[in-house]
Amino acid sequence: MPMYVVGHKIPDSDSICGAIALAYLKNQIDEPAVATRLGDVSPETAFILDRFGFEAPALKESYAGEEVYIVDHSELTQAPDDISDATIVGIVDHHKLGDLTTSTPLECWIRPVGCSNTVIKMMYDFYQVEIPANIAGIMLCAILSDTVIFKSPTCTTADIRCVEALAEIAGIEDFKALGMEMFKVKSAVDGTPARDLVMRDFKDFNMNDNLVGIGQLEVTDLSVFDNIKADLEADIAKLKEEGNRHSVILLLTDIMKEGSEILVVSDDASIIEKAYGKSLTDGKVWLDGVLSRKKQVVPPLQDAFA
């Protein structure tokens, strides 16, 4: 039986591309693996897969009795619902260590870099496995996405060097231009229902026994939200009540201005204000220089809840 390689719920490009890249690597070292996903692919991910000739991994939501290799997280809230009935054989990630636990030893590749695909590139180097051009392409796109084309504070020298090496393998001369194409796809929000936008890149976190949902929309110009911001605010309020969450935060990130406006609904907004040292006005505030949910949004919020 093969292991299943899967990312988190509401998968982003790192999660999907990482599952494909890691499954290929595992198969090359005689460890049978199948890439799967826990949700629909985003428009950006669809663009990447189409650009390099891939189909999306199969949708698989139940893993009871299976061997599972987790990609791009180690959080129980982001894992398959029946993960406690599966055997976790490995984790590759670049986030904080979450609350997934195992009853057997496992392989862990966790590094403080900007993207899981950077870690997977390190795994290819370790096992001395050649990366096909099309897999190199999706890996570098995932890194460009997660690091906001190297603008994010999570970006490291390792991420940049991996992109440069992967671009050479994939035959891409101007990878930054490719990155901007991806973000233009992300910025196309016209005609998309508010719920689809809110859930496009959304993660739940357990913060001192409080469920907190944090979504992020990265665009090249915040003006694309001018006519729909009220709809987004109304939808995150509904989402909070539907999921019995303490708080829901939606980051509207402008990658050109390098900052985020956050929209907030909360049982106690003072916790959010304490986390970021800013007062909310009508449930929102601009956070200059904030691009990364992983490094700049989650850690101070967890500290505030603690």
From TrEMBL:
Q: Which Pfam families match?
A: DHH, DHHA2
GO MF, one example:
inorganic diphosphate phosphatase activity
Q: Which reaction does it catalyse?
A: diphosphate + H2O = 2 phosphate + H(+)
What are the record keywords, sorted? Hydrolase, Manganese, Metal-binding
Boundaries of every DHHA2 domain copy: 179-305
What EC number(s) is this enzyme filed under? Answer: 3.6.1.1
| InterPro entries from the UniProt entry | DDH_dom (IPR001667), DHH_sf (IPR038763), DHHA2 (IPR004097), DHHA2_dom_sf (IPR038222)
Please identify the protein, giving its name as recorded. Answer: inorganic diphosphatase
Per the UniProt record, the source organism is: Shewanella maritima
